[in-house]
Amino acid sequence: MGVFTGRTALVTGASRGIGRGIAERLGRDGARVAVHYGSNGAAARETVAAIEAAGGSAFAIRADLRAPGAARTLWEEFDRHADGLDVLVNNAGIGSTRPIEEISEEEYDAVFAVNVRAPFFILKHGMRRLRDGGRVVNISSGLARTAAMPDNMAYAMTKGALDVFSRDLSKILGARSITVNSVAPGIIDTDNTAELLHGSADGWKRAAALSALGGVGTPAEVADVVAFLASHDGRWVTGSWVDVTGGSLT
Ligand code: NAP
């Protein structure tokens, strides 16, 4: 029996990267996992297969979170497979590295749509599906608390907004013993950071030097923290911002 046996979890953006790491960890600990994705169905099926190969249970659901009405689409898909949930991880996100002088309104709107509007409306329409005693984890970023990469400003702004959402939603859902927290990774080795880490000869070394621990994080290292917050052991932690940057902000 795993700590999530009998529980249902939904992880957005679980086809790849950090979301996949979280989905696999929750699945390994017994949760039935809804593996959400935007466009890469093959990658989502790989996540489902990996969870099943480890003895777990999972299903894939698709919703493009850039699209208006995306949250309703996501829940319609989810409802075809399950009748409620215990753990919701808002992980899907897109970056933006274009400096303020160059960023268009379209790119700004897209990054806010996926990173802020989608989690907000996923909760608005999903709160009634979330069972009492449940968990919400929003994947933020260390960039919400440092100006180290100012060209990522629009992206960092979305994570600042997401953190306010975590904080205030914790007061609303606390009455039902549902916790809400932000988890803020530093630089993690995923598709999202491929150019940063592998696009130049010293990219990895420079990224690792930002961390007090002298390394680049992995999806599994973020997943372990999410699993703690989602477990019974995390029941008295809510409205918080958990630094998972390997000491990149100190
Ligand atoms: P990633 O490897 O690029 O994966 C992104 C995931 O989000 C994929 O599953 C993707 O689905 C989904 N997604 C993207 N756009 C979508 C859309 N329009 N609609 C629905 N789903 C969409 O990203 P990652 O690095 O794992 O990042 C995951 C989260 O961690 C993000 O919120 C990111 O801001 C945050 N974060 C990452 C880092 C880092 O260093 N990697 C650091 C701090 C915070 P498809 O496969 O279908 O495209």
TrEMBL record:
Which InterPro entries does this one have?
A: KR_dom (IPR057326), NAD(P)-bd_dom_sf (IPR036291), SDR_fam (IPR002347)
Q: Which UniProt keywords apply?
A: Oxidoreductase
- Ketoreductase domain location is 7-190
Q: Say if the entry is tagged with keyword Oxidoreductase.
A: yes
**Protein family membership:** Belongs to the short-chain dehydrogenases/reductases (SDR) family.
Instruction: Please report the name of this protein according to its UniProt entry.
Output: SDR family oxidoreductase
